[in-house]
């Protein structure tokens, strides 16, 4: 078959990969020269630890798919480095203790560590915390390098073409197949189309399906110069417990009721996530903004909070911040779907809304869609 993938982000590329793996031909269209959306404005984390029970199996499978892909494409920078969620209050520790008592704690690779054990796992952590929730199943890829590396590998099959700078304007489905008309004047014909439009919920997505149960979420992040030492795991602070469904329960309710969150973190709905890039710098974030229209500028107070929190956990000054950015991702609001996925017309599928989990879930989502399409 010939599959046309619209969208050059992680979901589009994961669907292209799944089709190539099954022996099909793929043409992938991207309106920019390179993907510039949430795919490259994230941590590159494959975050199994916080997934809900309903999505845990998909996240675990996706993590293993990433590890398998890395054997063929080492340029994605996959590291099975795990994570440490550093807990600074007794209420946060209680959430972790409740998590450890659940039957899937072992499946998630969880262990609750005392500070000295945290330091043995990650000697760069010399700051103030009461305990660390260690997750061996979390991993990371290089978000700004992974997609070019995947495309280069797919190109070697002779069955993959990446067409940049081409925006899809119309999609048609007939008994003879499907076609995508792009703004370069060309019509690309095939047997199936997967539209992965990211946070662009209008345009073709709206024409095909009308309003769909998704929303956009804005976040702010930053990157430092090289740390000068190895951060052997990704790290998170206790505020992250508030944003991952796995931790829901009485202890989290008590944590939220205690209203202990620092005012800036509460105002901007913040968590600290931090992962070291292969070049040694740290990617640090983030904030959550849900109400549109979003501001077009970035605010400084969240960055001060992230810097202060990072330095408290590391027990040292951060290297200089070399860049800051904002991003927007698409989040599915249907509780019965991990992502929004629907066949709009015969042979045409729309997939979006991973909700900040694109890197975590991408390979499994692409494989699942391929199965639904009988590829």
Automatic annotation (TrEMBL):
Looking at the UniProt record for this protein, which Gene Ontology cellular component terms does it annotate, in alphabetical order? Answer: cytoplasm
Which PANTHER family does the record match to this protein? FAD-DEPENDENT OXIDOREDUCTASE DOMAIN-CONTAINING PROTEIN 1, SARCOSINE DEHYDROGENASE-RELATED
Q: What Gene3D superfamilies is this protein classified in?
A: D-Amino Acid Oxidase, subunit A, domain 2 (3.30.9.10), FAD/NAD(P)-binding domain (3.50.50.60)
Q: Which GO terms describe its molecular function?
A: oxidoreductase activity
Task: Specify the signal sequence span.
Answer: none
Q: Which InterPro entries match?
A: FAD-dep_OxRdtase, FAD-dependent_OxRdtase_HpnW, FAD/NAD-bd_sf
Q: Where is the FAD dependent oxidoreductase domain?
A: 2-372
Print the keywords alphabetically: Oxidoreductase
Name of the protein in its database record: FAD-dependent oxidoreductase
Q: Which organism is it from?
A: Mycobacteroides immunogenum
